Amino acid sequence: MRLARTARWLRRLGAAAGTLLAASVLVFAATTLAPGDAAAARLGGRAGPQQIAQLRHSLGLDQPAWVRYGHWLWHALHGDLGTSYASGRPVSALIAERAGNSLLLGATAAALLVPLAIGLGLWAGMRAGRAADRLVSTATLALVSMPEFVIGTLLVLLFAVGLGWLPSVSVPSAGHSVLTQPQILVLPVLTLLSVSLAQNVRLVRAGVIAANASDAARTARLGGVPEHRVVLRWVLPAAVVPAVPVLARYLAYLLGGTLVAETLFGYPGLAAALVDATAARDVPVVQGVTLLVAAVTVTLNLLADLLAAALNPAARSLS
């Protein structure tokens, strides 16, 4: 049994590694096939053909694509993502400066998602059919129906333009870090939470309604067990455990998919670095940031798969 479980985990690890390898191929191909020339963009419009050719040779851009991909992948596996064409700094150092801000944004949203999803889902599910449940159901349905950039725009119009409570952009003042100005995190975090929270609240609510009507809960109530103990002992575990794998996938999204919110609010994270590098044809930075996001997403989804298999016996038997 233990060997079979180990074999399943190894298969999952192999699938994750294969996915990441495929992502690296797509990233490299996309940056290679993109229109324009990195050497010409770096030198500017006044450079002559000879200067461009010399720079292409020094950067290795005149080598076959498969050779460049092999060199890039080999160095990336050893932690060397190359050197920025625009600044001349190591790409890993540039990413390290921005990754902390992106991680702070995603981790803040993730830390709020779990208690809010479980709390609101439990509150609505225990009041199924009442006004409170209808209010939560309507609000979550509205949030699910709108994309993040629309919700973010509406939040700016309400809290920044209309009420003036929060800044419309999430750019820290010169010489200050994000941690010293927490108010700039509020709108990006709310934008990230919008769809993720709505989906998980609806999932937990449905589980609570089913568990509340189960034979175990009814028997406990008939036996005189206090209502709060029925909820904590029978209803909440039965509702939350099936939702945990889905919740874990949303946590993976929040930690690896903050690019939309960062771009919308100008937050100084990896998204800003990616947008600037794309405009400047800074290929090493584009490749490094994209590969890092892909690696984080694949890793967190792997952990979500393992969690789902650990909590669901049927999933374990089918793996």
UniProtKB/TrEMBL annotation:
Residues annotated as domain ABC transmembrane type-1: 99-304
Xref: SUPFAM superfamilies: MetI-like
Database matches in Gene3D superfamilies: MetI-like
Keyword Zinc: no
Bilayer topology annotation: Multi-pass membrane protein
Transmembrane segments: 103-123, 135-166, 178-198, 291-311
Recorded family membership: Belongs to the binding-protein-dependent transport system permease family.
Protein name as catalogued: ABC transporter permease
Organism expressing this protein natively: Streptantibioticus ferralitis
